[in-house]
Amino acid sequence: EFFNPSSTLGGFGYKTAIPEKMNFLAFRGKQSSYAYAPPLKEIGAMSALVPVEEGGWGASLAEVGRATEELGRYCASTAMIFAMHQIQAACLVRHGRSPVFADLRRRLVEEQLLLASATTELGIGGDVRTSSCAVETVGDRYRLEKNAPVISYALHADAIFVTAYGKAVRPRSD
């Protein structure tokens, strides 16, 4: 079964021509799911959630969900990677208001970065909203050490988002 290159990608608000190369990449079971990243990057899908005024597609979560569903019809692994990437992109768009994050959004649009996350951590009992590691300031740089036993598609990611505390000494309510 092949991905239809003349379709829209999951019903975004406008036609998105899928490159012809998606035909051979979407052949079920014949390619690594990481082979999908370059074609998705070529059409700008990695920055789908970034607002139009910042160079993205300005897609809604529902539209990205439909695009993920469409990808999943041809390769579930690709759809999962795309969805996990978009979760991180959504965090960046919704919560990243500092100039550092604005620059990262710009890079996401321009470079079509593949984002991963390091939320799994030994010793936290499965609570991905907490962490046992903290960010340390070392001169003008930052450092953290995290015991993350697994990071999905880490070797293929362009950036990895990490859950961590801002300070090593913090109240238990933090």
Descriptive report:
The protein is an alpha+beta fold and 174 residues long. Helix content is 32%, strand content 8%. It has 5 helices and 4 strands. The strands form 2 sheets. The chain has a two-stranded parallel sheet with strand order 1-4. Strands 2-3 form a two-stranded antiparallel ribbon. A hairpin with a 2-residue loop joins β2 and β3 (141-143). α3 (61-72) runs antiparallel to α4. The longest helix is centred in the middle third of the chain and has 20 residues, at 76-95. The model is unreliable at 1-30 (pLDDT under 50).
Largest sheet: 2 strands, parallel
Q: What's the number of helices?
A: 5
Distance between the termini: 49 Å
Biggest sheet, strands in spatial order?
1-4
Average predicted confidence as pLDDT: 76
User: What Rg, in angstroms, do the CA atoms define?
Assistant: 18 Å
Q: Could you say which overall geometry the principal axes of the C-alpha atoms support?
A: globular
Q: What share of the residues does DSSP label as strand, in percent? A: 5-15%
Detail the poorly predicted runs. Answer: 1-30
Order of helices and strands: HHHHHEEEE
Quaternary arrangement of the chains shown?
Answer: single chain
Percent helix, as a range, is: 25-40%
How many β-strand runs?
Answer: 4
From the helix content, strand content and strand pairing, which structural class follows?
Answer: alpha+beta
